[in-house]
Amino acid sequence: MISLSNVTKNYGKNIGLRNFSVTLDSPGIYCLLGRNGAGKTTFLKLIAGHHNASSGKVTVNGNPVDMLHMPEQVHFVASDAEHFNMRIKDLFKTAKELHSQFDIHFATEISQRFKLDLNKKYEQASFGMKVMVNTILGMASNKAVIILDEPVLGFDAITRKNFYDLLQDCNEQKQKVIIVSTHLIDEISRVAEKLLIIDQGELKLYADTTDIDEMAYSVTGPAKVVEQLTQGLHIIGAKKVGGFVSQYIFDKPIEDTDMVMVSPLGLQDFFISLVGEE
Ligand SMILES: Nc1ncnc2c1ncn2[C@@H]1O[C@H](COP(=O)(O)OP(=O)(O)OP(=O)(O)O)[C@@H](O)[C@H]1O
């Protein structure tokens, strides 16, 4: 459905993405992770046709995408999106007038769940409430692809929990491709089905989160024993303390022995091992 093939995006001397290829071919919740400046927003904007690639090809449903051919079926919610200063319920009505597929009932229902005052004007809403309105406009857009760039910025803990529940409901009811970029790794891991990690403009990892649950673990013990046990496996990081070592592995599980301790790596530790500096 979404494909980037050998895509490079330069901003003058700065590199946004470098020779990047990936295909997202089934509905579900995709979580996009990367350090600051890794290239997440660049990736999302290329899919939405807000940027032109410097080279390579971006397609959505087989159609080439660029700034002159923005894909109809993609709704991009920027973290800093702004809207006309009208009452929130009028924003929803306008969205319906402009896009007949906009699901105003779904938007109203979600707003009630978030306890949004629909009579409030957009500019009178707090930062978190504005982000919520932007998110609702995306989730109710009924487009095949919904992109949320840093949606939980400004949400309190309870609103974030409601937001993740909403993502899950929307995913179950509507079967969309939902791509969420975030820095709150452990929180999103509850709902994300696929994980994309971008590092310095390159795709570092694309995997099912269930695979990470099964294949990401640490092995701690005497250096020689650990090194022998993990020989040939994909080691993504290591820490040494005295004669002991902890190796972080992303590969098939190993047999447990009394000589070492094997523990699962949470998504956050997995991410840090993969893209963190030594
Ligand atoms: N308009 C621009 N002009 C010049 N350089 C840019 C521009 N937009 C992005 N970049 C550069 O491209 C690289 C990727 O930026 P991008 O915004 O895609 O990263 P990001 O992963 O979304 O970061 P963050 O998590 O901090 O939002 C960075 O080095 C950034 O400085």
Automatic annotation (TrEMBL):
It holds the Pfam family ABC_tran. SUPFAM superfamilies: P-loop containing nucleoside triphosphate hydrolases (SSF52540). GO terms for molecular function: ATP binding; ATP hydrolysis activity. The lineage of its organism: Bacteria, Bacillati, Bacillota, Bacilli, Bacillales. SMART domains: AAA. It comes from the Bacteria. This is ABC transporter ATP-binding protein. Residues 2-225 form the ABC transporter domain. InterPro entries: AAA+_ATPase, ABC_transporter-like_ATP-bd, P-loop_NTPase. PROSITE patterns: ABC_TRANSPORTER_2. It comes from Brevibacillus fortis. Keywords: ATP-binding, Nucleotide-binding.
